[in-house]
Fold this sequence. Notes:
The structure holds 2 protein chains of 2 kinds. Chain A is mainly alpha-helical. Chain A is built from 7 helices and 3 strands; from the N terminus they run αβααββαααα. Chain A folds into 2 domains: 6-87, Arc Repressor Mutant, subunit A; 95-180. In chain A, 25% of the residues are buried. The model of chain A has no long low-confidence stretch (mean pLDDT 82). Chain B is built from 9 helices and 10 strands. In chain B, α4 packs across α5 (142-154) and α5 (142-154) runs parallel beside α6. Chain B starts with a strand and ends with a helix. By secondary structure, chain B is of the alpha/beta class. Chain B folds into 3 domains: 1-82 and 158-175 and 182-225, Rossmann fold (3-Layer(aba) Sandwich), CATH 3.40.50.300; 95-157, no CATH class; 232-256, no CATH class. Chain B has helices spanning 42-49, 72-81, 98-108, 113-126, 142-154, 172-189, 200-203, 240-243, 251-255; strands at 2-13, 16-27, 31-35, 57-62, 65-66, 83-86, 160-164, 192-196, 208-213, 216-217. Classes of the chains: A mainly alpha, B alpha/beta. Chains A and B meet through α5, α6 and α7 of A and α6, α7, α8 and α9 of B.
Amino acid sequence: MIGVSTPHVLLGLLAQGSRHGYELKRAHDQRLPRARPLAFGQVYATLGRLQRDGLVAPAGQDRDGGPDRTTYALTGAGRDALDLWLAEVEPPLPYVTSTLFAKVLVALLVADAERAREYLVAQRRAHTDRLRELTAVKTDPSATLDDVVAADFAIAHLDADLRWLHTTLERVADWHREVHS
Amino acid sequence: MTELQARGVVKAYGPTPALRGITLDVAEGEIVAVTGPSGCGKSTLLYCLAGILRPDAGQVTWRGERIDTWSEAARSRLRRTEFGVLFQFGQLVPELTAAENVALPLLLAGTGRRAGRTAALAWLDRLGVADLADTRPGEMSGGQQQRCALARALVTEPRVLFADEPTGALDTLAGEQVLGHLVRLSREQRTTVVLVTHEPRVAGYADREVMLRDGVVDGTGLGIEVPSSGGPGRSTGGLGLLVGDAGAGSVQDGLR
Lengths: 181, 256
């Protein structure tokens, strides 16, 4: 997922209570099941920055038989930063930055008919396969609410891509009919 | 085992061709989505497979038996006993309660009133609408009505369920709930499903997608013809190359 703000996600997870780095990583991967799993190094580096900025503070050591693990808690400033982020409206994404969009346009511009067609057929198949896979994930009786919500998000975007692919092809064919009739 | 088979099915409404030679196999227990743009013939295909319409030419076979040549009465009996049909909306009898609606196919087949009600209640329960058993359709939401209609389509435990845009009149969440039930129950019963839809996300519930275009099966899955022959389309600029001559369309041509 592009543009996920890891510092804010960690602040959000700490809002539920203090945790150490490993717990944060696990909670992240569980709550955002289709996002790229967080690397441990990234968790600790982010916690370090958040501590430097006064948004989190060490809240004790958790020994638990193993090596010392520092638990972190949200500070007042951290809570304010989280509230501010949640209240801030995200600009609706201009999807014209998508590679799919660029590729289809370039295919229409420069590729020969057969190649453009092959590309579109293959792209449609890949999208449809992924859509079916995600539908299976979310209709699985053991799916959690997090799984379903994450699959919904991905499905809605694939569905939009597919509709756009079809509309584009219809437009091209229509326009071709007009020009050649 | 092949559940349904269409061979060269042709159907026209007056001078307008709807199906122009459809050949299709559906395996037992398979969930097939028939997709394509409006007017591509997908509903007509469903009606021909379900024995509601008779093709002008070609054959429709169910479990090895040719059914398109059967009389209206025989096909109607087949639809009552072996097939279930679910439409977009407006299938429930408004004067009857949910339980009476669901029991209707059983009563028509000669089941007693009490046994019919028991079966209807069990199906309403499986669809999560047991509490609506004594409610009339007018007092239900669209999603609730569609769940009752699905219960009615499945109450006879049909071999094949035909669904024509079953979520077309519902909002996304209500539609997904209906589809979730439809797929789960069909798998449990090993019911074969032919699902007509124009929505990619609905087709995502199926095992396989068959796309129609202008009354024929579109092997490319694009749902639209991208002509691969014709003039190079000089006057059409860059876009012309997609629809222009396959052999001539190179990058250089595109920049010419």
